[in-house]
Design a protein that fits this description.
Layout: E1 11-16, E2 19-24, H1 35-47, E3 54-59, E4 64-66, H2 71-74, H3 90-93, E5 103-108, E6 111-113, H4 115-121, E7 125-129, E8 133-135, H5 138-141, H6 152-157, H7 159-168, E9 172-173, H8 174-180, E10 185-187, H9 192-204, H10 208-222, H11 226-243
Parallel strand pairs: 2-3, 3-5, 4-6, 5-7, 6-8, 7-10
Antiparallel strand pairs: 1-2, 8-9
Helix pairs in contact: 10-11
């Protein structure tokens, strides 16, 4: 993978066999999400073909995975992304990641704050650098979240811990994030990208259809009661065996 230059587009994309690496490439702005980045995330993830089975999403530089939405563009009063039909928000579209029917692994190399934390939550799996930090600035700037923070975060780390992060606007360190279950595991900064790619290749070696179906089943069952999830798993397993 070639070195990322400052004059390159807002996303840098490379591919290693069935694994794509997508890098948020605004290091001077701590990889904050601009209108251009919104559009590129949606276009890039929707454009991956069947040859891509897993994607590693990371940020350029060492300071930030993503520091949230671009505050300068937000100050203009214009939306950073199309409003849509009013029924689908960033949580539904996962900042455009939902256009890809595969697995997305976040390689969190620095701070992941507010919209950046939401973007990490929109990924299927999260691996973080030991120097990463996490936080939510929505209360600080007087906004309510719209992309999984109030819904998924309490499921992952518990209601009280989610309230501590979101209502205080304090940052938590990587060790706390791992202990609370926000990230799968921690690795040293220099090993982060390789660790994420190794996991992506382990996933990508399996048949794309079973990985996509299994991933959806886990997500669907996560929002159900235990009894309903058991029933849903049985139906999905039976239908899969009949169809394959």
């Amino acid at each position: 993978m070639s070195e990322i230059q400052q004059d390159e587009p807002v996303l840098a994309v490379s591919q290693e066999g069935p694994v794509a690496i997508v890098t948020l490439n605004r290091p001077k702005a701590m990889n904050s999400i601009s209108r251009a980045m919104f559009a590129e995330l949606e276009r890039t993830f929707a454009g991956f073909g069947d040859d891509v089975r897993a994607v590693v999403l990371t940020g350029a530089g060492e300071r930030a995975f993503c520091a949230g939405l671009d505050t300068k563009e937000m100050a203009s009063g214009e939306p950073l992304a199309p409003a849509g039909d009013g029924t689908q928000g960033f949580g539904h579209t996962r900042f455009g990641l939902a256009g890809f029917d595969g697995i997305v692994i976040a390689a969190i190399n620095g701070v992941a704050v507010a919209g950046g934390l939401e973007l990490a939550l929109c990924c299927d799996i999260r691996i973080a650098s030991t120097t990463a930090r996490f936080g939510d600035a929505h209360a600080k700037v007087g906004l309510l979240p719209g992309a999984l923070l109030s819904s998924l975060l309490p499921h992952l780390i518990g209601v009280a811990r989610a309230k501590e992060i979101s209502l205080s606007s304090r940052l938590i360190d990587a060790a706390t994030a791992e202990r609370w279950g926000l990230v799968n595991r921690l690795v040293e900064p220099g090993e982060l990208l390789n660790a994420a790619k190794e996991l992506a290749h382990d996933i990508a070696r399996h048949d794309r259809r079973i990985i996509s179906a299994y991933n959806r089943l886990i997500d669907d069952n996560f929002g159900m009661t235990y009894a309903d999830a058991i029933d849903n798993e049985f139906r999905a397993s039976s239908d899969w065996q009949v169809g394959h």
